[in-house]
Specification:
This protein has about 280 residues and is mostly helical. Helices cover about 80% and strands about 0% of the residues. It is built from eleven helices and no strands. Helix 2 packs across helix 11. The longest helix is centred in the C-terminal third of the chain and has 39 residues. The radius of gyration is 24 Å and the shape is globular. It starts with 9 loop residues before the first helix and ends with a helix. The N terminus is likely disordered.
């Protein structure tokens, strides 16, 4: 079979192209039809941006977007703190009674079906409400607790893997020089694991923003997230406003990816220039 300069066969290139087409062609169609003037999403009637205006005038959807963003920020921030503490216990603390149980409970949401997680949390909140009167109603607080519960597991895995790769002699050297454990963590450990913390926060933010199943179990009429309102809208009939919303979300992710790539490329060039100047 004919080989090309990169050592990749024509067959593999065709498969790769088909894979990318399968992944991104629906997104391109969605973006194109977000500018469709027709109210029917499967019929092209001309170019128009009116659905973006309709989207921003939709108070229910804008309110749900605000709730989802605040919820994702709060859940990701809390999950990073708790997940980092759990990762430190698993990676730095030696064997202790209940370590296997603790590790299993922390990582259980990774493999637990979302339906089971949502149902168990719903039963927990209902039982607490009957026993102690809290929570009086399900809403933002109960969704936040539920999202922190499963987002923390992902953060723990990301941070613990970074702690496992870290050279502990750096921490030992800092403590030999007189630093206590807290100062060693703040000045040595935290800067080294910072990329893992950022990655864990972004992962938790995305998972919270995207969650539908668990939030449907633990939410109340006072708090409706964006995935819930989108799912309800789709069930009643797909609106071109959903295409506009999805296009804006794709644009935000694409711009964020470009900025991240530019920052990484700039840092790589600076490191290369520094290494060349030192040599």
């Amino acid at each position: 079979m004919a080989q090309y300069s990169g050592g990749v066969s024509l067959f593999n290139k065709v498969l790769l192209g088909l894979g990318f087409f399968f992944l991104y062609a629906p997104m391109l169609v969605l973006i194109v039809y977000s500018f469709n003037s027709s109210s029917r999403v499967n019929i092209w009637a001309g170019f128009s941006a009116k659905w973006y205006g309709e989207l921003f005038r939709d108070e229910a959807m804008m309110s749900a977007l605000g709730v989802s963003l605040k919820l994702a920020f709060a859940s990701a921030s809390t999950a990073v703190v708790l997940g980092t503490l759990a990762a430190i216990v698993l990676a730095r603390v030696g064997r202790f009674p209940g370590r296997m149980l603790f590790g299993g409970m922390v990582t259980a949401p990774l493999v637990m079906p979302e339906v089971i997680t949502g149902l168990s949390l719903l039963l927990l909140f209902v039982g607490l409400a009957n026993a102690v009167g809290w929570p009086a109603e399900r809403g933002f607080l109960t969704i936040w607790i539920a999202h922190v519960t499963f987002c923390m597991a992902f953060v723990t895995v990301v941070v613990s893997s970074r702690l496992g790769e870290m050279d502990q002699s750096l921490e030992e050297a800092a403590m030999d020089l007189g630093a206590n454990r807290f100062k060693t963590f703040c000045l040595i450990t935290l800067p080294i694991i910072a990329p893992a913390l950022v990655s864990g926060w972004l992962l938790a933010f995305t998972l919270s923003l995207d969650d539908l199943v668990i939030a449907s179990f633990v939410s109340g009429p006072s708090s409706t997230t964006l995935p819930m309102i989108v799912f309800s809208s789709v069930r009643m009939g797909l609106s071109p406003k959903i295409n506009a919303l999805a296009t804006l979300m794709i644009a935000v992710v694409f711009i964020g990816a470009l900025i991240s790539y530019w920052l990484l490329l700039r840092d790589e060039k600076q490191r290369l220039a520094a290494s060349q100047s030192s040599s």
